[in-house]
Amino acid sequence: MGFPLIIQGGMGAGVSGWPLARAVSLAGQLGVVAGTALPTIFSRRLQSEGLDDNLKRALEAFPIPDVVKRVLSRYEAGEGKSAGEPFNLHSLPGIRQPRSLLELTVVATFVEVFLAKEGHRGVVGINLLEKIQMPTLPSLFGAMLAGVDYVLMGAGIPRSIPGVLDGLSRGEPVEMKVDVQGALPGENFVSSFDPSEFCGRPAPQLARPRFLGIISSTTLAITLARKSNGRVDGFVVEGPTAGGHNAPPRTGGELTSDGQPVYGDRDLPDLEKIRALGLPFWLAGSYGRPGRLAEARAKGAAGIQVGTAFAFCRESGIRPEIKDEMIKRSRSGTVSVFTDPLASPTGFPLKVVRIEGTVSEDAVYRERSRICDLGYLRRPYRMADGKVGYRCPGEPVEDYLRKGGSEEETVGRKCVCNGLLATVGLGQVQADGREELPLVTAGDDLSEICRFLKSEEDSYSAADVVERLLQEEIDFGHAFTSSQSESA
Question: Which pLDDT band, with edges at 50, 70 and 90, does 250 fall under?
């Protein structure tokens, strides 16, 4: 299996769903499903849309029918829930998860990867965030059951994941260390998963997917290559203009006049040192622009990762009216992307698209009643009695303070979990009757998406993006070769 030239970014909860990953894979590149919040996405689709033909095929292929029966009994809603009715919630993820949540996570991830891979021989990956640790092990197992080809992980230092992939491929119990705030020296907290226990019989032997670490610094690349507990197969080198979460700048807390983090030369990784590690790498962050694929390959990269261009194509999960609006704004040059240093409870800067009537507006944000009912970005912390509790800077301030957090950490924090789900049409109706509003994220390339439109069309496909990027590489390569010849 060779390496793809283009990796489709694993954007947001439900943005990079199976239809998008499948379309990119069919176009000959690496399609990637987003692994974030898949249990919630799957359960809400069952509740809102019922069991369609696609889900039926995927669930029939799941190797443990009793697990499927239990999941459907909890969440299938026949013809779907009525408008204005809230979604039923599942347990919040934690270090120790109830069987019901483990089953939902494995099934949801299996379904997403299965449908992305169904009926073709292209490659499909799954993107996970190291900072969202609790669902990781069952998510990886579900993806591997469906034959996932690549695992991509960033937003942290995922040194234990290569070894986890090795263990799951052999059907062995696996564990990973969980970061717990306030843990005392010598205290270790781990999340564990036993495939045989889950299956109720000896676990199957599974193909081990390739692992790509998503990194933003040379130091992190070297650390993963040399200190991981298993094989690292390559890197995605992400710059600060990439969409979604960005690594904090190395300049510290310096901000621009409008409040965005300042990035400088120290935030640019040394590609020579990364290339010296002898592993393939892909460049990300405004690489969906003309000529940048050829430029990346000239720097020694295997290719590029592109997110924003795919996020607003027809196959992505973003609500159609939001995609239409962003394409219009791209055409008119009125796109506004703000790198918000506070919005994400993770503490990482988050690129938020400024759109009227969404949580990007301060007034809308202030009107929302704080609630933490999904919990993917909760942080485990050590309580006084040595047990583990969970808190999120985006939850009600009084709750956060009661759990030992500081008020300063809550300032400007937004509920990314609920905002992202609203962006893909799965927003919760809360107790006060209000439906959660979108929080749209994208990279700086959002202003460029209109160039993927074909003549007289108002939308574009994932295949259009791949075709344009590959054609631009050919055109740029020819121009570069010609200029070199003339100068000679």
Answer: confident
Which residues are 220's β-sheet partners?
none
Question: In the chain, where are the structural domains located?
Answer: 6-332+446-487
- Give the span between the Cα atoms of 341 and 411, in whole angstroms: 11
Residue 203 pLDDT more than 80?
yes
Confidence of residue 399 (pLDDT cuts 50, 70, 90): very high
How many angstroms separate the CA atoms of 472 and 167, rounded?
41
Q: Of 1.20.1070, 1.10.3470, 3.30.1150, 3.20.20, which CATH number belongs to 6-332+446-487?
A: 3.20.20
- For tokens 């992980």, name the residue: 153
Nearest to 437 by CA among 360, 378, 352: 360
Burial class (CB in 10 A: 0-12, 13-18, 19+), 311: buried
What DSSP character marks residue 88? Answer: P
Joined together, the tokens standing for residue 76 give 């299938």
Torsion angle, alpha carbons of 325, 377, 73, 107, to 10: 90
- Overall average pLDDT of the 110-128 stretch: 97
Q: Do 354 and 362 touch, CB atoms closer than 8 A?
A: no
d(Cα 68, Cα 72) in Å, to the nearest integer? 6
